[in-house]
């Protein structure tokens, strides 16, 4: 098997802007993104809808998965949902690349779960603006939240009942799991 040729972040950004399909970038490699399932999309839509009201009037914005985010110098992703508090900052070389997420949500899929839990979370931890990282299962009621502590360590919390409440301390917002999983059969 022939090794893939590595590309620079600038080459990735130029390539990404000239193609209709979205791809993420990891350490010199362009990774094609697969489509999402109906439950995955329902959860994302529920998050966007439910986060609008608690963030209204705050200096925070919520964005869907179409906003490319630079996590590190060699990692660009498309999180499922992003919250940015304060002025959104964009890459000086690419005005469509966010650089300061406050909260990132990833809806777990069988093809992405290992990466979302492992190397992707490891990269997100290097992003200084990120305060909370939330993983949401689509095949069962399970929400996991990692919160950055002042010491730099990450505190883990798992919620597994529809009546549980996800509290996003960095943006002073709460969502019930029943709202997150509204009309999702799990």
TrEMBL record:
<dbReference type="Pfam" id="PF05685">
    <property type="entry name" value="Uma2"/>
</dbReference>
<feature type="domain" description="Putative restriction endonuclease">
    <location>
        <begin position="10"/>
        <end position="177"/>
    </location>
</feature>
<dbReference type="GO" id="GO:0004519">
    <property type="term" value="F:endonuclease activity"/>
</dbReference>
<dbReference type="InterPro" id="IPR011335">
    <property type="entry name" value="Restrct_endonuc-II-like"/>
</dbReference>
<keyword id="KW-0255">Endonuclease</keyword>
<keyword id="KW-0378">Hydrolase</keyword>
<dbReference type="InterPro" id="IPR008538">
    <property type="entry name" value="Uma2"/>
</dbReference>
<protein>
    <submittedName>
        <fullName>Uma2 family endonuclease</fullName>
    </submittedName>
</protein>
<keyword id="KW-0540">Nuclease</keyword>
<dbReference type="InterPro" id="IPR012296">
    <property type="entry name" value="Nuclease_put_TT1808"/>
</dbReference>
């Amino acid at each position: 098997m022939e090794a893939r040729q590595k590309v620079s972040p600038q080459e990735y950004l130029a390539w990404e802007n000239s193609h209709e399909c979205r791809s993420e970038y990891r350490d010199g490699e362009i990774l094609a993104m697969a489509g999402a399932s109906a439950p995955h999309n329902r959860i994302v839509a529920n998050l966007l809808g439910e986060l609008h009201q608690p963030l209204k009037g705050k200096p925070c914005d919520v964005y869907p998965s179409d906003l490319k985010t630079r996590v590190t110098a060699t990692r660009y992703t498309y999180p499922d949902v992003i919250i940015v508090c304060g002025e959104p900052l964009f890459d000086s070389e690419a005005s469509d690349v966010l650089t300061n997420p406050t909260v990132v949500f990833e809806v777990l899929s069988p093809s992405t779960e290992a990466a979302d839990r492992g190397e992707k979370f490891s990269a997100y931890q290097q992003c200084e603006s990120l305060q909370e990282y939330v993983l949401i299962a689509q095949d069962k009621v399970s929400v996991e939240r990692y919160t950055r502590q002042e010491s730099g360590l990450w505190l883990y919390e798992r919620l597994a009942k529809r009546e549980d409440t996800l509290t996003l301390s960095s943006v002073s917002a709460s969502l019930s799991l029943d709202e997150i999983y509204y009309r999702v059969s799990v």
